[in-house]
Design goal:
Number of domains: 1
Helix content: 25-40%
Order of helices and strands: HHEHEHEEHEHHHEHHE
Oligomer: single chain
Strand order of the largest sheet: 3-2-1-4-5-7-6
Structural class: alpha/beta
Number of strands: 7
CATH superfamily: Vaccinia Virus protein VP39
CATH topology: Rossmann fold
CATH architecture: 3-Layer(aba) Sandwich
Shape: globular
Distance between the termini: 38 Å
């Protein structure tokens, strides 16, 4: 029996306080090391801390869980079938289900599933005949997603604690893998795409939205824990990103959607002085959200 979340429950969901003016970066402690110099364990701890705090508070970017304001990056979900407001923490940079080619009865895996936003949208497409599995490494997010699903009563939706570099699923398990603004946070991106390849059935495909860059990013931004958790400091060059996918063995790789992300000066000035801001604009050609698909041979 499927349950519906009531209007009263929707009204009491966590609300976002943020425009850029709401969240000041003044109290942020920057690491002396750029993200490339941190160990994988250090990077994962940054993500667990930031996103765990987001899951437990009523705002998506202020207070102890403050990260770069995702309203800059996100696409709107609220017009989609299956949308659950309580599961939407404004943490995405695209709409992977739009190009995922999900069919009735498919087994869909969402990597970095958060509170369940893309999982519930995918479930509306795959229906009762299908299965949707959300994977996240943050315990607080898994618990929040499970609470959301308990209100909906979906028997064919589950959430598992696990890391993308070691996905807790058997080989050849999925028809479609989706992910929204998460793979750029994974320290070992080659291993992440290798795991995606492993769990996909032969001929199956992935569709992920992610952040990439073109040009050089300031070292000050690379040292920022907030910018890393906000999917900026950990983004790699677009060409390198696509090469990783290709070298993993995927075929028919295609960018379905690409949009430029503009970080406002008022945000950048929290991390950069005037010279740094000038260098940023001269050296970084752009930060982009791409939605890309690839097929397992």
């Amino acid at each position: 029996m499927e349950k519906k979340i009531t209007n009263t429950e929707k009204e009491t969901q966590g609300k976002n306080c943020c425009g850029p003016e709401c969240c000041s970066g003044k109290n942020e402690v920057q690491s002396p090391k750029a993200y490339q110099e941190k160990s994988a364990e250090e990077l994962k701890n940054i993500i667990k801390e930031k996103y765990g705090a987001i899951a437990e508070q009523t705002s998506s970017c202020c207070g102890s869980g403050k990260i770069v304001d995702y309203y800059i990056m996100k696409d709107k979900y609220d017009n989609l079938p299956g949308y659950v407001a309580e599961a939407d923490l404004n943490l995405g940079c695209g709409l992977p289900t739009e190009f995922a080619g999900i069919k009735k009865g498919d087994t869909v895996v969402d990597l970095g599933s958060g509170a369940g936003n893309d999982v519930f949208v995918a479930r509306a497409i795959t229906g009762e005949e299908g299965r949707v599995i959300g994977i996240d490494m943050t315990e607080e997010m898994i618990e929040k997603a499970k609470r959301n699903n308990s209100k909906l009563g979906f028997a064919n939706v589950e959430f598992r604690l696990g890391e993308i570099e070691d996905i807790p699923l058997a080989d050849n398990a999925a028809d479609v893998v989706v992910s929204n603004c998460v793979l750029n946070l994974v320290p070992d991106k080659k291993k992440a795409f290798s795991e995606i390849y492993r769990i996909l059935k032969p001929g199956a495909h992935f569709c992920v939205s992610d952040i990439v860059i073109q040009g050089e990013m300031n070292s000050e931004l690379k040292r920022s824990a907030e910018m890393y958790a906000g999917c900026v400091a950990g983004a790699i060059q677009q060409d390198e990103y696509l090469q990783i996918i290709e070298k993993t063995g995927f075929k028919k790789i295609e960018i379905k959607k690409r949009k430029k992300i503009i970080l406002p000066d008022e945000l950048l000035k929290q991390y950069l002085n005037e010279n740094g801001l000038k260098e940023y604009k001269e050296n970084l050609k752009g930060i982009f959200s791409i939605t890309v698909v690839g097929y397992k041979s």
